[in-house]
Design a protein that fits this description.
By secondary structure, this protein is mainly alpha-helical. Helices cover 66% and strands 0% of the residues.
Length: 271
């Protein structure tokens, strides 16, 4: 995103970042758009045309397969550690697209909503860069392993509802990362890969704020629609994502990300 785009539309910038397939170009455009928005140089058009859901820009590799087709990742070998980091990098790459889609798709939201998700897009781009750099140190690259498309499939399912999107992507799929990342870090340290564990630690700490943004805007959407947030969340999970709800939960991280003690107790019962 260069200076020629400053003074343009938030939605046009989001559409561009979504379309770009080359990772380096997507990262550069994301960083530029985030800077332009922070400087107040992108407008939020009230009469912008509605978007259509589509396939976001992404490179030809990795090849996308069923989650069941992905082999287990043993961390005792360099290849196993590369496969784990690649899987996380793929999640972060998808998360860039998901954040830009949340900006592009849902119109008429407060400026703070767009600020949150543009900030998330910039964070996810930085996380992806950190993971690619660590992969390179181990002799790997993004695209070396197969991956799955579960995150974007949920984006399609929630394309007609900001409330459902905020519930099911940040508060279910991304919150799952809060639960499993500490165990990944512990396993990496056990095999002596402290550099990879440090990268995951950075990501974990910053992902708490991303899930918190989902909690904040889910609550806002529920209030706008006059719906009970707790009951609505559990109903959406039961309808769309019951299989994604697995314990044990990282209670401290989830509390910091906007889950109440009562909500966590209900989630543990449901899981």
């Amino acid at each position: 995103m260069d200076s020629r785009n400053e003074g343009g539309s938030v939605f046009a910038c989001a559409a561009l970042c979504l379309r770009l397939a080359d990772p380096a170009a997507k990262l550069a455009a994301t960083a530029g758009a985030a800077r332009a928005f922070a400087r107040g140089r992108l407008r939020i058009d009230a009469d912008a045309p509605p978007p259509a859901i589509g396939v976001p820009g992404r490179p030809a590799r990795p090849r996308l397969v069923s989650p069941r087709a992905l082999p287990p990742r043993g961390l005792g070998s360099v290849d196993g550690r590369k496969a784990l980091l690649h899987a996380v990098a793929h999640i972060e790459f998808n998360a860039i697209n998901l954040a830009w889609d949340a900006v592009h798709r849902f119109r008429g939201m407060p400026r703070a909503y767009y600020a949150d998700w543009i900030g998330v897009a910039a964070d996810e781009a930085r996380h992806f860069s950190l993971l690619c750099a660590r992969l390179a140190e181990l002799g790997g690259a993004y695209g070396d392993f197969d991956a799955h498309d579960g995150l974007w499939e949920m984006a399609v399912k929630t394309s007609d509802s900001c409330l459902a999107r905020m519930a099911l992507v940040p508060r279910v799929l991304e919150a799952r990362g809060l639960d499993v990342t500490p165990r990944m870090m512990a396993r990496l340290r056990e095999v002596g890969d402290f550099a990879s564990a440090r990268v995951l630690d950075i990501i974990l700490r910053e992902e708490v704020a991303h899930v918190a943004a989902g909690s904040r805007w889910f609550a806002w959407c529920c209030e706008r629609e006059g719906r009970d947030a707790d009951a609505t969340f559990l109903a959406l999970v039961a309808e769309y994502a019951r299989g994604a709800l697995k314990g044990p939960f990282n209670v401290d991280a989830r509390r910091a990300a906007g889950f109440s003690a009562a909500e966590l107790a209900r989630l543990e019962a449901a899981a």
